[in-house]
Amino acid sequence: MKRIPETSTTLLRDIASDAESARWGEFVARYRPMMQAYLKTHFPLLDADDIVQETLVALASVLPRYRYAPDETGHFRNYLTGILRNKALKRNEKIARDSALRKSLQVTEASGPLQKVADADGKWRKAVMEIATRQLLADSRIHERSKQIFQRLTVDCMAPDAVAAAYGVSRNSVDKIKSRMVERLREIVRALEAAGDV
């Protein structure tokens, strides 16, 4: 069990007053283990890093209005965990909606010819791939140039040599970027399928 961090009012004040404060690094180092442990316990199928990142973004916008008064409003860790839980629940709701759409397609087509069932499954897998691609391209941990190169190769169907020339990198670099992005995309697809019970 991760140790619950002690609340530092000066730390909260500093990051609340300056969204670019260098102390955000200190805040993340202090609270990330607690948040990841909570998600691992209560939402093990979700990507903890994504939910933590969404929580930090939300926290940055509400902290300027937050007043630390544990005797009146409770401890800060409970406030933070509340935001984290809401973000996780919203992600679960989205996954559930996607799963319901898949099941609806299967039920609708189940009594028809096998080709219709295959078409429905194909549509679902296409939808999963589109969701996974959006998540991949929204991942702030991935360098923007890698995303652009991946899009040129997969969406715009540009030749690898042309992409390499356009970005001033070697063909080998383009191949490596594509390989890394494809592997990350596969991880996202597997997570979506597992969460949707595909």
Describe the structure.
This protein has helices at 9-17, 24-42, 48-62, 70-73, 76-110, 114-138, 144-154, 160-167, 171-195. It is mostly helical and 198 residues long. It folds into 2 domains: 9-91, Rna Polymerase Sigma Factor, Chain: A (Orthogonal Bundle); 112-195, Arc Repressor Mutant, subunit A. Helix 2 (24-42) crosses helix 3.
List keywords for this structure.
76% helix, Rna Polymerase Sigma Factor, Chain: A, globular, 9 helices, 2 domains, 198 residues, mainly alpha, Arc Repressor Mutant, subunit A
Helix content: over 70%
Low-pLDDT regions = 108-118
Distance between the termini: 32 Å
CATH class descriptor of the largest domain: Mainly Alpha
Describe the largest sheet: none
CATH superfamily of the largest domain: Winged helix-like DNA-binding domain superfamily/Winged helix DNA-binding domain
